[in-house]
Amino acid sequence: MTPPQPAPGARPLPSRPPSRAAPKAVGVRIAGTGSALPSRVLTNADLERMMDTSDEWIVQRTGIRTRYIADRAKGESSYSLSATALTLALESAGLEAKDLDLLIVATMTPEMSCPPTACRVLEAIGGPQAGAFDLSGACCGFVFGLNCAHDLIKSGAYRTVGLVGCDTLSKYMDYSDAGRSTAIIFGDGAGAVVLRATDDTDKGIISQAMHADGGGWKHIYVPECDMDFPCGVAPDPGKLCTVQMNGSQVFKFAVGTFPELIQQTLDKAGLTAADVDMFVCHQSNARILQAARERFGLPEEKLYVNIDRYGNTVAASVPLCLDELRRGGRVRDGHKVMFVAFGGGLTWGSSLWQL
Ligand code: UT7
Fold first, then answer.
1. Which residue puts its alpha carbon closest to atom 47 of ligand 1?
2. What is the pLDDT of residues 100-113, one digit of tens each?
3. pTM above 0.90, yes or no
4. Is 313's C-beta closer than 6 angstroms to any atom of ligand 1?
5. Does residue 53 have its Cβ closer than 6 Å to ligand 1?
6. Is the C-beta atom of 312 inside 6 A of ligand 1?
7. pLDDT tens across 269-314, in order?
8. Which residues contact 123 (CB under 8 A, 6 or more apart)?
9. How confident is the model at residue 128 (pLDDT cuts 50, 70, 90)?
């Protein structure tokens, strides 16, 4: 094809079209972390009073002893917990709200369907001029968000990105006998990170993965009307707006997929499990975490577990772990850290970082 020619008398076309200067190569660092929990603690003993269950059953099957539940009367909800976690993350990074270029809130329990929860969070932290949107990835939301935010910084489009993982699943729980297999697991919370561009190009993601099996959606879902029930499941008005989970199917999927995902992420990076300083995994069930630890022969201190205190906090579980580890000095600059999650969708994903 002949290139377009200038019209007679027009200025000749420049030999090369003017282009934006190539972005300077940058690395990405985790500049700060923060987390927030609601005020109400729900213990196994509390649940024993609400439904037919026992502390022994819950601890044996899940490893959970307590979880935190948002108290709406006190204004605790997805956006307010997110705002607290993000404020603490900014503080720990030595930054202010106005330094953010972009805010991503990973959640499956947005404050409302419109506006994005991220916009409410922006207002709550002082209304900086920044981009803001929500990311819906269920339990994988935060890890998917890490991969996206990292690559947006790497591209040169943004320098400072806030990422929050927040869920308040208590609003979709049935705290009666009918809901006992899910109500015992889930808790509310929020965790946040602030990611920043750095001149140290060694810092950032070494390898990552994001997967989904759409056919598995029916194993965890929240029906809002009759047509939301999967084929073969009779619509039940008592189940509307409550989490429906086929626990044993998800358990089997997780026990198989979790180690495979870790191995795949290591292989992509040309590393072994021994090269990784810390595995920060979605806290879904202590038995699933234990199986992964044994599969890779990891010592207890290399795969962090806090499910006993918080239960499964969905998109918040990975950043809640990270914040505790970072503040406790167990995750620091120079470490290699793998973030891993799986959950509703079905989805699974990882993000291996050089901090
Ligand atoms: O983050 C999202 C991803 N979600 C997960 O990773 C969840 C994965 N799944 C699990 O963690 C487990 O499947 C559960 C903890 C949900 C359930 O444990 P399980 O060992 O798979 O139990 P089950 O569903 O096979 O049920 C075993 C028995 C049943 O009684 P029968 O039919 O054997 O008489 C249940 O009715 O345990 C009963 N049961 C309970 N008993 C006391 C179910 N929930 C309870 C309960 N207390 N809360």
1. 53
2. 999 999 999 999 99
3. yes
4. no
5. yes
6. yes
7. 999 999 999 999 999 999 999 999 999 999 999 999 999 999 999 9
8. none
9. confident
Give the position, in ligand 1's atom list, of the atom nearest the Cα of 344: 2
CA dist 82 and 24 (Å) reads 32
Name the DSSP class of 29: E
The tally of CA atoms less than 13 A away on the side-chain side of residue 81 is 37
∠ at Cα 37 (95, 78), nearest 5°? 80
* Secondary structure (3-state) at 205: strand
Which sequence spans correspond to the domains of the chain?
A: 27-198, 204-354
pLDDT in tens, 129-141: 999 999 999 999 9
Residues designated catalytic: 139, 282, 312
CATH class of 27-198: alpha beta
* Residue 57 CB less than 6 A away from ligand 1: yes
- Nearby residues of 16 by Cβ (< 8 Å), 6 or more positions away: none
Q: 204-354 is classed in which CATH architecture?
A: 3-Layer(aba) Sandwich (3.40)
Residue whose Cα lies nearest atom 19 of ligand 1: it is: 248
Nearest residue by C-alpha to atom 16 in ligand 1:
247
